[in-house]
Amino acid sequence: MSELIEKLASAHDLSDEELLEFLMQPQPEQELFAAADAVRRENYGDAVYLRGLIEFTNYCKNDCYYCGIRRSNTHAERYRLSPEQILDCCAEGYAMGYRTFVLQGGEDPYFTDERVCEIVSAIRAGYPDCRITLSIGEKTRESYQAYFEAGANRYLLRHETADPAHYRMLHPESLSLENRKRCLYDLRDIGYQVGSGFMIGSPYQKPEHILADVRFLQDLKPAMIGVGPFITHSETPFADFPSGELHFGLKIVAMLRLLFPKVLLPATTAFGTLHPQGRELALKAGGNVMMPNLSPRKVRPLYDLYENKVCVDEEAAQCRGCMEARVKSVGYRVEVSVGDSLVR
Ligand code: 5AD
Ligand code: FES
Prior knowledge:
single chain; alpha/beta; TIM Barrel; 6-stranded parallel beta sheet; 13 helices; 9 strands; 12% strand; binds FE2/S2 (inorganic) cluster
């Protein structure tokens, strides 16, 4: 085995110099994926956890340069789901076996803490055996505390890049890496299972930035790490930047599995968008979570963070079957238990 992969697989870490070399030099892909798969099987066996994703608002007050639902995209058609619609999605998801509901949305001021807590409490009351994951952006510690007390268990908030100068190139002045990190540490302290992560191949990204991402994640110790290739959206300031490369993205997934053996690692939709079998390849590179869409079909195309997103035309039930077939096709097994992370 190549020396760097060997060390990654046994020590689950590399020095800064080694990590940069790993990122910059081509690596034997099959060897790398086999090592990642072995570590994943050691910890999670052949299980792939499914999470029902409900994209409940595409209004957003932020203006991130990469994102299709940014405030300044006046071409985006905006929608919000009512609490009843959200609960209908949960009912449908529960019937299909999902035991985690992920409520994801833009930073939409309409959804005040009171409204978020009402929705979370209603789901908590209706589905006491399920996990509730929120992914609604940067909030105060008090807000996070209130959602937690209402019954939320997990929170997804990607840091996007751990390098302050790179962060500045991806976001307007109103956002800061400092506040993003503050949010993540608050969430962890409150007791959430936290997911963070970053885009791969985002504009101006350098290997040094990925090194900083790794060091930040080693400090945060998240339960879950979400990564996916950057994908161009034509109605953003980054319209002229190319999408990230599939094989570099897969290399990062495998690297993360080796660095963080016990983390939950989704095979994200962005991989599926870059390549018809992108998510399956991400599973083979160490991924062990998939997030099928439960949002009503009518609004799905509107949650358009990036172009040509997959699973937009399928009904939730079709997506469920499709996911199962995809997971089986690469030798894994769908698992619908709550699937808590082994981290901690
Ligand atoms: N390409 C890939 N991922 C994107 N995200 C937002 N815009 C894009 C894009 N153009 C990711 C961000 C965000 C998550 C919800 O989606 O990392 O945290
Ligand atoms: Fe959603 Fe195939 S995984 S339709």
